Amino acid sequence: MTPELQEPIWNGLRRNVTGPGTNGRSTTAEELFRDYPAGAIQVAGKTGTAQGRNSYPWNDSSAFAAYSIEPEHPYTIVSYLEKAGFGSTGAAPIVKCMFLALSGVTPLDPVAISEPLDTTMEVPAERLPDVGTECMHSSNAGTIRPID
User: Fold this and answer.
1) Less packed terminus of the chain by CB within 10 Å, N or C?
2) Spatial separation of the C-alpha atoms in residues 65 and 99, rounded to whole Å
3) Helix (H, G, I), strand (E, B), or coil: what is residue 127?
4) 72 by DSSP, 3-state: which?
5) Whole-prediction pTM value?
6) Cα radius of gyration (the chain)
7) Domain of 9: which CATH number?
8) How many domains, in total, are found in the chain?
């Protein structure tokens, strides 16, 4: 791709995360990333909403794809959540948290290799411990929905 074609696309994807929006409105990811630390891996990305069956909003699926704009951190993260609403409310917070973790901003528990899957097991798995959601905060109270 020539730089003349590539540059406006990259600038648009970066602006979706950093803003500013136009006509007094924010971009789809701007409010979520408003508090994103300058010291974290800087990203560009795009939210998306896949309209569900019969155009009912409860059938919409959430998507967000982002990549690092820093060559020394060649990461791309994509999140797609079935029936999770808008991209900015479901998938984007997950990607933001993952980039904060890669940046060392959000502490992570040590990774432990799981036991092999027992396909003969007849009881449900134990409930996983709750994970903090501090990295999902947004200046827009409607961006992140509480977990029921």
Assistant:
1) C
2) 12
3) coil
4) coil
5) 0.74
6) 18
7) 3.30.450
8) 1
Question: Is 70 domain-assigned?
Answer: yes
Token readout for 114 is 């799981």
Tell me the two tokens of residue 67: 């990549």
Task: Residue 100: give the domain boundaries.
Answer: 3-108+130-136
- Is cis: bond before 20, omega within 30 of 0? yes
Q: Identify the pLDDT of residue 148.
A: 41
Return mean pLDDT, the chain. 83
CB 75 within 8 A of CB 102: yes
Give the sign of the dihedral formed by CA 104, CA 12, CA 15, CA 131: negative
H/E stretch holding 15: helix 3-18
The helix (run of H) or strand (run of E) holding residue 108 is none
Query: Closest Cα partner for 111 from 101, 103, 119, 124?
Result: 101
DSSP state letter for 145 = P
Angstrom distance (rounded) from CA 146 to CA 46: 23
